[in-house]
Amino acid sequence: MLTKINKPDIILDRDGVINIDSDSYVKSVNEWLPIQSSILAIANLHKAGHRIFIATNQSGLGRGYFSLDTLTAMHNKMLDLIHQAGGEITGIAFCPHTPDDHCTCRKPKPGLLHDLSLEFNIDLNAAIVIGDSLRDLQAATEAGSKAILVLTGKGKKTQQENPELPYPIFETLYDASQNILI
């Protein structure tokens, strides 16, 4: 009898990890542009048996820059591209609040990770969180997860401002995925 080896769940930030980020916010479906290697990375991780999740701050909702319908359309575009590549996203959690709202879900707080854990039975102590900002890494640490920094999006700035980060660092999500798949 073969024993199933449990693969760690992967929780990704969205902007700057999966798609090209913008300092003026990604506000429309047309502005949501994938990092092509990230779509392939997600597909490869999924095919290898990892469940993939997204935890993303989307304060553009709270700021009135786009609607929930627009966010849903952006996510549908992303999911379509991932499905076309043979991948799957098991769940998406997003925080619509601005920093001034002082909510419990906005990263660097771990609320989004806890929400995903409760809904999808994720072992956060075994999970890997991949992000491009310090707040992604802080949320992962607070939740007890392994954190990885990618240098896409705000990643290079994050690394420059925090040169002593104790986390693995990779150029892209694809590079991080190749390391996970070893």
From TrEMBL:
Active site: 13 (proton donor), 15 (proton donor)
Required cofactor(s): Mg(2+); Zn(2+)
EC nos: 3.1.3.-
Top-rank lineage group of the source organism: Bacteria
Root EC class: hydrolase
Subunit structure: Monomer.
CDD domains documented for this protein: HAD_HisB-N
Amino-acid positions noted as binding Mg(2+) in the UniProt annotation, renumbered to this chain: 13, 15, 132
Reaction(s) catalysed (UniProt annotation): D-glycero-beta-D-manno-heptose 1,7-bisphosphate + H2O = D-glycero-beta-D-manno-heptose 1-phosphate + phosphate
Protein's organism: Cycloclasticus zancles 78-ME
UniProt site positions, description: Contributes to substrate recognition: 106
Record keywords, A-Z: Carbohydrate metabolism, Cytoplasm, Hydrolase, Magnesium, Metal-binding, Zinc
Protein family: Belongs to the gmhB family.
A single GO BP: carbohydrate metabolic process
Membrane spanning residue stretches: none
Protein name (database record): D,D-heptose 1,7-bisphosphate phosphatase
